[in-house]
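Example 9 (inverse folding). The structure is encoded as follows.
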């Protein structure tokens, strides 16, 4: 069941406005009209959430809350639209979050299209999608949003990466004999980072083999047998669960590269906790996309 009722703490997480302040706004200006549980706890619907996001946008723009409280909803929307040109990032992030809660693909698409009029896909990914995904990750961990909300927005972003990767491939010219094989470990499901890494590699002129999610270790030996200059790239967010990253790659090398160790680039949240345990010098931790870009540039120079 999709979450349609939110606590005041949820609203704090989503808007950045402290729960205490929201209560004051309610009492003094009647800005929100919460429902109450049998134990008199406030709950808020999606409409209240959307209203608060709109109010927060104007409040952060410098409008006094006493003035906002007197405005009808259509005038609030007009003010937001007029401010959106000068505060495009804040407006876009608000719109993406609204699209997530209302499962509105058109709002997401329209917001993205507007951004593309002035920015490259690369800029949008770094300046908006990464902050959005970071915030969504925090909201999911705190229970503010459902997996369905996270999945909706993640799929929209994945679609854009795939579209732009397709555009790169149409005119792709390989500038190196080196090949990268990109995969997610078995039962690893978070694919956005890997998809974007593939986009960056292809954009640099690299040759890639994109395998995607749920790849068992033992199946990768077929790739090793077909390429001389090969680097693996994987992204670890929740896997491996049952053992450390170091032991995962020990097994990887024994199964797939028994004669000569393979070079493996590893990205994702898991390396932030397990990096110090890596002992194989052929396993190279890449902490973020910018570090990946630097690594790709250094390869092109060598």
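The amino acid assigned to each position is listed next.
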């Amino acid at each position: 069941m999709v979450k349609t009722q939110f606590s005041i703490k949820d609203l704090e997480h989503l808007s950045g406005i402290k729960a205490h302040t929201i209560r004051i706004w309610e009492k003094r200006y009647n800005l929100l009209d919460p429902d109450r549980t049998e134990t008199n706890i406030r709950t808020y619907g999606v409409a209240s959430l959307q209203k608060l996001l709109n109010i927060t946008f104007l409040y952060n723009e410098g409008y006094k809350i006493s003035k906002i409280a007197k405005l009808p909803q259509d005038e609030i929307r007009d003010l937001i639209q007029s401010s959106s040109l000068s505060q495009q990032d804040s407006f876009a992030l608000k719109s993406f979050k609204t699209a997530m809660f209302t499962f509105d693909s058109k709002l997401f698409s329209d917001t993205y299209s507007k951004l593309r009029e002035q920015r490259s896909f690369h800029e949008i990914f770094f300046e908006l999608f990464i902050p959005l995904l970071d915030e969504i990750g925090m909201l999911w961990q705190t229970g503010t949003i459902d997996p369905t909300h996270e999945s909706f927005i993640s799929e929209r972003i994945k679609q854009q990466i795939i579209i732009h990767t397709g555009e790169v491939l149409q005119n792709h010219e390989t500038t190196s004999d080196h090949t990268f094989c990109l995969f997610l470990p078995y039962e690893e499901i978070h694919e956005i980072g890997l998809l974007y890494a593939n986009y960056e590699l292809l954009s640099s002129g690299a040759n890639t083999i994109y395998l995607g999610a749920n790849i068992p270790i033992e199946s990768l030996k077929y790739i090793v047998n077909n390429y001389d200059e090969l680097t693996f790239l994987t992204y670890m967010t929740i896997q491996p669960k049952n053992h450390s990253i170091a032991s995962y790659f020990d097994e990887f090398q024994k199964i797939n590269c028994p004669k000569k160790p393979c070079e493996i680039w590893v990205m994702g949240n898991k390396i932030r906790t397990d990096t110090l345990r890596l002992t194989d010098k052929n396993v190279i931790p890449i902490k973020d996309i910018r570090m990946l870009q630097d690594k790709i540039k250094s390869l092109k120079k060598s």
